[in-house]
Amino acid sequence: MNTLKLPIIFTILVCLLASIYWFLNFPLYRYGYSFFVSIIILSVSYFVYLNFEITNKKKIFKILKIFLIISVIIITIKNILRIQSQYEIIYNEYPWPQIYSYDGKNIKQENTKKKITNFFDIYHPKYRLCMYSKGPCTHYNEISEQIDVKKILNYKIVMPK
Fold this sequence. Notes:
By secondary structure, the chain is an alpha+beta fold.
């Protein structure tokens, strides 16, 4: 029975160290939530391993299997309904992904080119924010009076005036 104890503790420690490393270097939730989920699952399994007898463990795992199956079915049905409800809607550049969906109008972005210097242009979106516009882009109107562009060794340096 003790042969399982050391690998679970080692795996929990690895996940804990990885989550600390992730939090210090890349603190975006979407990149590191799997470490937290792993720590929770491994901690619960370690708790079940230590505190329950074999007959109770079988009952717990049977309940967890049923819960897993029901969860997969519910998530699958929810996603099928979500996709099916949007399937009939015709939008700009259908059937490609709906990238112009900042609002319900789904208007294709048009840009106005503003000349900042003789070697640097910046784009201003006509309808809304820059999202899928040409770059470099800004949604500020009077940007040409607010920035200075210099060319140093084939690099374009953009800085405020």
